[in-house]
Amino acid sequence: MGIVGAALVSIWPMDCCAIQGVSWLDAEMNAPVVAEIREVIDSCPAEAQICDLHVWRVGKGKYACILSLAVVDNAEVDAEYFKRHLGVHEELVHITVELNNHRETNNLQAECCVSLNSEV
């Protein structure tokens, strides 16, 4: 019985690590919801570019995301604007948006994520 118990105790952590390893290694970035997030940001009228995006599973079919965006100063948007657009996807249950404001559209990509000005 000791050998059977030892086998169960040694097998269980390996299975647990294999299942949780996907989350630990940020492998949820292959989930279809990531493409949906990128599509929503690209389709918004405000000019914004994704600097950083992290998505992870928090439940069965439920995801949380942290999104850092570079937006042009003349865009009259705040983090809530993007959260409302992303809120149409029911699988996103927790959304954090950080905005970085930049003055010129041609420097938007070069200066992506230089300074954080707003966090919601």
Physical arrangement of strands within the biggest beta sheet: 1-2-3-4
Average pLDDT confidence is 76
Could you say how many structural domains there are in total?
2
Number of helices: 3
Report the major sheet: 4 strands, mixed
Low-confidence segments, ≥5 residues, pLDDT <50? 113-120
Percentage of residues in helical conformation: 25-40%
Q: Per the principal axes of the C-alpha atoms, what is the gross shape?
A: elongated
Task: Tell me the β content.
Answer: 25-35%
Q: Provide the CATH superfamily of the largest domain.
A: Cation efflux protein, cytoplasmic domain
Q: Class of the largest domain in CATH?
A: Alpha Beta
As for the CATH topology of the largest domain, it is Alpha-Beta Plaits
Judged by helices, strands and strand pairing, the structural class is alpha+beta
Could you spell the SSE succession in H and E letters? HHEEHEE
Radius of gyration: 19 Å
Quantity of strands, as a count: 4
Terminal residue distance: 54 Å
Map the helices and strands:
Blueprint: H1 2-24, H2 32-43, E1 48-59, E2 62-72, H3 79-86, E3 92-102, E4 118-119
Parallel strand pairs: 2-3
Antiparallel strand pairs: 1-2, 3-4
Would you mind describing this structure in some detail?
This protein is of the alpha+beta class. It has 2 domains: 1-28; 31-119, 2-Layer Sandwich (Alpha-Beta Plaits), CATH 3.30.70. The chain has 3 helices and 4 strands, in the order ααββαββ. It has a 4-stranded mixed β-sheet, with helices on one face. A hairpin with a 2-residue loop joins β1 (48-59) and β2 (62-72). The protein is elongated and about 70 Å long.
